[in-house]
Amino acid sequence: MTQRRSPWWYRFRELIFAASYFVGFVGGDALTPGNDPTLPTFVVAGRFLGDRGPELLLALATLCVIGCWAIRVWGASYLRAAVVWNQNALNHRLIVAGPFRYLRDPLYLGSLLLAVGFGLLAPPLGFALIVVANAILVRMLIREEAALMRASYGETYDAYRAAVPSLVPRLGPADVAGSETVRPSLAQGLRSEIFSAGFAIAMVLLAFGGPRMLPEFYAIGISGLLVSQVLRRLPA
Questions:
Q1: What is the CA radius of gyration of the chain?
Q2: C-alpha distance from residue 204 to each of 61, 94, 117 (Å)
Q3: How many domains does the chain contain in total?
């Protein structure tokens, strides 16, 4: 395994992701004009879809966050939690198995689904800030990892890149000569994604229980983040 020190923005990617949500919710609220600056995007945009539009968009937001959790667990089951959590980009394996047979960056697709789903709870300007910021950072992270893998695996990685899209899944699974098939560990995937599981559960409670579930929403979301941080400090 090559442990090259990645750029600072890669090593602090989780803080940058978190900052994008903070700016989106707090800054979006402060900068949104009108009489209802605190209304979330799913309410504002949902009004254009009819009486049940907000409910439909909240359901869509919930599905996006659940999708984030599911695809990240699937991908992390092959990568292992220590790889997902590592500060630096790693090049120890070129895995073409599980979700990596359909797209090269399933975990980052999950991050974008989270940005859309959770971002719909922010004001409209905040939603735009969250999605754009996450898309830019994801693009930077993908390019950093791709450059490292290209330098390590050369033509094998070129073949993989030509066969498998980055973020839009192909219809059928791909096989690439010279790549590695890995047995998944669901326990590792679930361990890696405690934080996204917390957000998914919180979104389900909000979707079914409405505003009265906000205390539980915040409690579960924050608990998922805290538990994730504790698990990172325990042996794999």
A1: 19
A2: 10, 35, 12
A3: 1
Please report how many Cα atoms fall inside a 13 Å half-sphere around the Cα of residue 171, on the Cβ side.
0
Query: What's the start-to-end Cα distance of the chain, in Å?
Result: 17
Its pTM surpasses 0.70: yes
Give, as one character, the DSSP assignment of residue 97: S
Report yes or no on 79 lying in a domain. Answer: yes
- The residue written with tokens 């050369």 in the block is 154
- Backbone phi, then psi, for 67, in 5-degree steps? -60, -40
Inside any domain, residue 3: no
CATH number reported for the structural domain that contains residue 19 in this entry? 1.20.120.1630
95, β-bridge pairs: 180
- pLDDT tens profile 27-86: 877 776 665 557 899 999 999 998 899 999 999 999 999 999 999 999 999 999 999 999
